[in-house]
Amino acid sequence: AWPGLTDPFTARNGAERIAAQLMHAGELPAKPDLSDIRRFCDIVIVSDFLDPVEETMAWLDVLARHGVRAHLIEVADPAEETFPYAGRTEFTDPETGDKLTAGRAEMLGDEYRLLYTARRHELAAWCKRLGWSFTVNHTDRLASDALVRLHMAMTTDGPSVRPTAGGRAGIAGGDRPGKAVA
User: Fold this and answer.
1) pLDDT of 6-47, one tens digit each?
2) What are the boundaries of each domain within the chain?
């Protein structure tokens, strides 16, 4: 299912059916309305999660209040994590088109990496408190890596978030602390 586009269904060609619906859909909101997701459902959300973490948590809070178990997959470009830029560099926001020109981009690197990592860790910790899974998949890695971790989280009693090599978040099985209901 795709919130606001399709109802849940079971089919071997599910991905193709959703893709066909997306091709014929008009403009979709950046963040779909999640209020119709029912209690005891599992939902998989794939995003870069680059919005301010408070906005992301506010958007997802309706799921926590409804007792939904969510599985978040953060898709990250390695350059977003390492900030390999130096010298005069122009950055363009892909959503708004706003531009920022840095005279010496390397001067922004340390603070950027600190903020980037803090955002990820705060979101991962929030997911862990709710009993949700959170994992990171890098664009230079196979998508199947994330799907294996997702499968593990959805078929165990207790997904939790653990850091893996290089400070990346991964999924580990364990006792699920329970669903958060506000």
Assistant:
1) 888 888 998 899 999 999 988 888 888 898 888 888 999 999
2) 40-172
